[in-house]
Amino acid sequence: xxxxxxxxxxxxxxxxxxxxSLAHPEFVVxxxxxxxxxxxxxxxxxxxxxxxxxxxxxxxxxAGSVIAERGPxxxxxxxxxxxxxxxxxxxxELFRREAPLAAEAMAEVDLLVLLxxxxxxxxxxxxxxxxxxxxxxxxRALTDDEELTGxxxxxxxxxxxxxxxxxxxxxxLG
Length: 174
Prior knowledge:
The structure is a single chain. The chain is α/β, with parallel strands linked by helices. It has one domain: P-loop containing nucleotide triphosphate hydrolases (Rossmann fold, 3-Layer(aba) Sandwich). It is 50% helix and 13% strand. It has helices at 13-23, 43-58, 72-84, 91-106, 129-142, 146-149, 161-173, and strands at residues 2-6, 28-30, 66-69, 111-115, 153-157. It has a five-stranded parallel sheet with strand order 2-3-1-4-5, sandwiched between helices. Helix 2 (43-58) links the parallel strand 2 (28-30) and strand 3. Helix 1 packs across helix 7, helix 2 (43-58) runs parallel beside helix 4 and helix 3 (72-84) runs antiparallel to helix 4 (91-106). The model has no long low-confidence stretch (mean pLDDT 94).
């Protein structure tokens, strides 16, 4: 089974994955692609992270049960958000160019877990709340596009960490 946990920044993805992997050690954890790119920001960094997330889902050597922090849709959503906010002149073009790779990789995903903004997590201004909200809206819109999500089952989780963990475990077992 291949699971991707998606959501804008500071929604509890790392916590959910950490808790899940402790209870399900048979799952290989694929960390946030941000850990593998230079500290840059902007659309170039997002494309690099999108490609990392896609390539690892498409890797024929990747076998067994996997849970990934972020997938290609996350980075398409950030590109869409940057475009919507008028912060990047290249974001729309990069979105169009990278969408086929994202769709190809998402075809390998069994379960797409969405963590939204509705759980009372507040972020300081340096975390860019405007981008956080725009990305969340863009991600939700992208999950309605079956060409991008493939056959992945979509599970939206809300609530405290224990509630989210129990719902994810039930979805995996069910």
